[in-house]
Amino acid sequence: MDLGQGVLAGDPLAISRAITAAENGTPEGRRILEHIAPKIGNARRIGVTGPPGVGKSTAVDALTKVLRDRGERVGVIAVDPTSPFTGGALLGDRIRMNRMADDPGVFMRSMATRGAAGGLSRATQDAADLLDASGCQAVLIETVGVGQSEIEIARATDAVLVLLSPESGDGIQAMKSGLMEIADIIVINKADRPGSDKIEYEIRAAMELGLKSRRNTPILMTEAFRAKGIPELAGELDRFLGERRKDGRFAERRRENMKLRLRAIAEYMVHRELWGRDDAGERLAKAADSVLNRSMSSYAAAEKLVTEALK
Known about the structure:
This protein is α/β, with parallel strands linked by helices. The chain is 49% helix and 12% strand.
């Protein structure tokens, strides 16, 4: 079966191979993405982020079960740090998402960041497109959880869940890391542990003092390991996205996100044209020599490189 047709048919093997092709930037991956383009845009894309150790994978697993119980097909993308030896995903979050691992209505994929900033792999949105086109009603994207650079998850999703826990530090520290600025819903996980009420108070106080535009952000308590509070979280997501669809902010967010995505793709293409050619090293050396022998300024030499690459 053609991979593009296999993706549209929801075939797990075709989806897996298509994601690999897109991740590697192969011509086949590009062709598949072109083929499925008319079929994307239906799935809700939900980002899940927060400091390491707060239970993101367990929460994603529990939320996936709630969505499956409602009859939805779900795609899960776990963006992990890159192994310095293999270049592959290091953590393998699917090991911890064992509750839904064997459900045929769930497709899980761990992806390596491969050095990408923001906790997201460059191909994460391509993978989300493929899962969207395959018939998933929801695509959950769990990020590495690296703090300030998590702004990237807000640029790739329709809603962002920020998970904290009593052990993850106080609300002011979370605000300093930038997490509060991207949160559409705040989830205090492991809420059965001491300090849950304290961190909720600190988050609300931090918002009143420094982030007044976020003061109405919902804060929910969960115990993801026991699935406690997860149905309520799914309901809050429905409410949030429903309101956004009605007032037009859902479509506007997608439009702004797409503008940012296209800019990133264009920059990647220019970078590839600059340094992906066989003679890139030779051209760079010549440009350096022209600056060092004072026949050209550094800016003029760089402009010449870019101009030649874009011809």
